[in-house]
């Protein structure tokens, strides 16, 4: 089965073609980071307009690079949520229209299911069942994945997502947008032990998380040093390291508890924050002690991309799922609301 996938949930326009026998045949990604950086964050209207400009040229580019004609496709997949309403409508409108014009079935894909399945794009990807940590700018969620579409939530952030906290702390320190990767880079030069930040909600049972208080603690530390303007370069590095260690340790502790609670031996970590080097190192070390294998997406598939949507769409099309003709998106769409779906492709 060969599927065209379209991702447009936020500020990146992704297109890819995935074949269940030959793998990923082609992909293209356009990031709007430079445009939104001037505003310190994503401007939804600008994001939607840029998806309108980029999508069809990217579809033509990927179709050409993959040597694929519409007649060789078996379906079109598009992100239907969660995400920015306008951005989702652009991708869904283009995807559903192409499918209708080409006489192909279309399938709406849950954005977070795309991330969840992204490690399966790797040669030695995970099999169901497994526990997953989905950690990004919009989500921090632990769940038990029993089969395609059969997801049981275990815990989530009660306030800010981890990636959101990274970006907000970076903004406090004047690092610009997107700040998470820049904060992680600063942390590489930090002095270990100078600051000790709290590990939120780790002193109580359960798998829910919180990062808002950690963000406030960071702000108070900055103010105690005289404010952002008074920070030395080393102060910034040390604060970045202390914040990153606290956020990462919190995630590791919650993952360890989730594995103990479920007895699972496979952990999938996906989403933008899964690219964080410290998170990978500390998770690998902690899980190895428990005989748990950890799976990550390739670095190119940690952030939003069309490949994960094409792959998820191929599995859902193989399982018989189809989209009706009306175009509908869900800016808010709990992953647990997906129905279990058998699948023949992998």
From TrEMBL:
<feature type="binding site">
    <location>
        <begin position="134"/>
        <end position="138"/>
    </location>
    <ligand>
        <name>substrate</name>
    </ligand>
</feature>
<keyword id="KW-0408">Iron</keyword>
<protein>
    <recommendedName>
        <fullName>tRNA N6-adenosine threonylcarbamoyltransferase</fullName>
        <ecNumber>2.3.1.234</ecNumber>
    </recommendedName>
</protein>
<dbReference type="Pfam" id="PF00814">
    <property type="entry name" value="TsaD"/>
</dbReference>
<keyword id="KW-0819">tRNA processing</keyword>
<keyword id="KW-0963">Cytoplasm</keyword>
<comment type="function">
    <text>Required for the formation of a threonylcarbamoyl group on adenosine at position 37 (t(6)A37) in tRNAs that read codons beginning with adenine. Is involved in the transfer of the threonylcarbamoyl moiety of threonylcarbamoyl-AMP (TC-AMP) to the N6 group of A37, together with TsaE and TsaB. TsaD likely plays a direct catalytic role in this reaction.</text>
</comment>
<feature type="binding site">
    <location>
        <position position="180"/>
    </location>
    <ligand>
        <name>substrate</name>
    </ligand>
</feature>
<dbReference type="InterPro" id="IPR022450">
    <property type="entry name" value="TsaD"/>
</dbReference>
<comment type="similarity">
    <text>Belongs to the KAE1 / TsaD family.</text>
</comment>
<keyword id="KW-0808">Transferase</keyword>
<dbReference type="InterPro" id="IPR043129">
    <property type="entry name" value="ATPase_NBD"/>
</dbReference>
<feature type="binding site">
    <location>
        <position position="111"/>
    </location>
    <ligand>
        <name>Fe cation</name>
    </ligand>
</feature>
<feature type="binding site">
    <location>
        <position position="115"/>
    </location>
    <ligand>
        <name>Fe cation</name>
    </ligand>
</feature>
<feature type="binding site">
    <location>
        <position position="304"/>
    </location>
    <ligand>
        <name>Fe cation</name>
    </ligand>
</feature>
<feature type="domain" description="Gcp-like">
    <location>
        <begin position="24"/>
        <end position="311"/>
    </location>
</feature>
<feature type="binding site">
    <location>
        <position position="276"/>
    </location>
    <ligand>
        <name>substrate</name>
    </ligand>
</feature>
<feature type="binding site">
    <location>
        <position position="167"/>
    </location>
    <ligand>
        <name>substrate</name>
    </ligand>
</feature>
<dbReference type="InterPro" id="IPR017861">
    <property type="entry name" value="KAE1/TsaD"/>
</dbReference>
<keyword id="KW-0479">Metal-binding</keyword>
<keyword id="KW-0012">Acyltransferase</keyword>
<dbReference type="InterPro" id="IPR017860">
    <property type="entry name" value="Peptidase_M22_CS"/>
</dbReference>
<dbReference type="InterPro" id="IPR000905">
    <property type="entry name" value="Gcp-like_dom"/>
</dbReference>
């Amino acid at each position: 089965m060969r599927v065209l996938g379209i991702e447009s949930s936020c500020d990146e326009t992704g297109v890819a073609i995935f074949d269940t026998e030959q793998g990923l045949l082609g992909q293209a990604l356009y990031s709007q980071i430079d445009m939104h950086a001037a505003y310190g964050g994503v401007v939804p209207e600008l994001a939607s307009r840029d998806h309108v400009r980029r999508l069809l040229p990217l579809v033509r580019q990927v179709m050409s690079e993959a040597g694929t004609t519409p007649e060789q496709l078996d379906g079109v997949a598009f992100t239907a949520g969660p995400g920015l309403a306008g951005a989702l409508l652009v991708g869904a409108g283009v995807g559903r229209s192409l499918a209708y014009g080409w006489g192909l079935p279309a399938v709406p894909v849950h954005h977070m299911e795309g991330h969840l399945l992204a490690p399966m794009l790797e040669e030695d990807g995970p099999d169901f069942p497994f526990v997953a940590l989905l950690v990004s700018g919009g989500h921090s969620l632990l769940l038990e994945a029993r089969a395609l579409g059969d997801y049981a939530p275990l815990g989530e952030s009660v306030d800010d997502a981890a990636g959101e906290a990274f970006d907000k702390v970076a903004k406090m320190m004047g690092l610009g947008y997107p700040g998470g990767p820049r904060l992680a880079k600063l942390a590489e030069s930090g002095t270990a032990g100078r600051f000790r930040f709290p590990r939120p909600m780790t002193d109580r049972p359960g798998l829910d998380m919180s990062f808002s208080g950690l963000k406030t603690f960071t702000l108070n530390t900055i103010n105690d040093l005289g404010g952002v303007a008074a920070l030395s370069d080393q102060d910034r590095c040390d604060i970045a390291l202390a914040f990153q260690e606290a956020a990462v340790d919190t995630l590791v502790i919650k993952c360890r508890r989730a594995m103990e609670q479920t007895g699972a031996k496979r952990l999938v970590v996906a989403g933008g924050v899964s690219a964080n080097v410290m998170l990978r190192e500390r998770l690998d070390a902690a899980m190895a002690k428990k005989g748990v294998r950890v799976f990550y997406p390739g670095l190119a598939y940690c952030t939003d991309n069309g490949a994960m949507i094409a792959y998820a769409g191929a599995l859902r099309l193989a399982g018989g799922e189809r989209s009706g003709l009306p175009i509908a998106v869900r800016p808010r769409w709990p992953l647990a609301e997906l129905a279990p779906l058998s699948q023949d492709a992998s």
